[in-house]
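Weekly sync, protein design subgroup
Attendees: M.S., D.O., the rotation student, P.L. (late)

Item 1: inverse folding check
M.S. brought a backbone from last month's batch and wanted to see whether the design step gives back something sensible before we order anything. D.O. pointed out we never logged the input encoding, so this time it goes straight into the notes. Structure tokens as presented (208 positions):
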């Protein structure tokens, strides 16, 4: 059973100023996407107020953002109105459960995750990676930026370790790790937080 702040918490935070909202996509995650381009329509898990999804749409990438906090989705949809029509048409935001990306199997080619994976315990992460495997076609890519440290807060965020990533995204599970590196998670009003940046690619039907 995963334990993390629920919908009411995130709705409350997004009505104010969330410290992870920097008004732009996380630079280290965008750099990773530049180095290993995405395939097809992108699914943005835990899309928040739309920083990453909007940045992708501005580059001409079709993207669906999924977020369970209605307050965040309201902000993201309003921000779309500031984009030119051709970019606005590429992005969509949906209120939903981002823990189950297999719901969009056959509709997406890549998944992006900026501060979502690190919310969950080990068991939930394992289940989530199985969901990812079902959702992506061979050659589909998963991009993740997550905290590489534990914070002095109850339950979350939880540290993401390289050893864990290698275990979850192994070749025997149908993945190849294209990149796994130390990174920074930028915040507003706080020091940047040590993070890991991952690009993992599906190589076959294993793990489905």
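Designed sequence read out in the meeting:
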């Amino acid at each position: 059973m995963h334990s993390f702040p629920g919908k009411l918490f995130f709705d409350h935070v997004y009505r104010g100023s969330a410290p992870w909202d920097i008004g732009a996509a996380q630079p280290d995650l965008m750099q990773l996407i530049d180095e290993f381009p995405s395939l097809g329509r992108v699914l943005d898990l835990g899309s928040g107020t739309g920083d990453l999804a909007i940045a992708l749409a501005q580059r001409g990438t079709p993207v669906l953002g999924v977020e369970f906090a209605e307050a965040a989705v309201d902000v993201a949809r309003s921000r779309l109105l500031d984009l030119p029509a051709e970019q606005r048409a590429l992005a969509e935001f949906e209120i939903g459960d981002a823990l189950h990306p297999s719901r969009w199997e056959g509709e997406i080619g890549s998944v992006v995750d900026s501060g979502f994976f690190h919310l969950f315990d080990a068991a939930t992460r394992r289940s989530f990676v199985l969901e990812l495997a079902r959702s992506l076609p061979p050659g589909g890519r998963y991009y993740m930026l997550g905290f590489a440290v534990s914070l002095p807060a109850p339950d979350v965020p939880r540290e993401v370790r390289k050893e864990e990533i290698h275990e979850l995204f192994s070749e025997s599970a149908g993945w190849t790790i294209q990149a796994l590196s130390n990174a920074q998670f930028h915040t507003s009003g706080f020091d940047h937080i040590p993070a890991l940046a991952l690009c993992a690619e599906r190589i076959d039907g294993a793990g489905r």
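Discussion: Helices lie at 7-14, 27-35, 51-58, 70-80, 85-88, 122-135, 162-168. Residues 7-202 form a domain with the Rossmann fold fold (CATH 3.40.50.150).
Action: P.L. to compare against the previous round before Friday.
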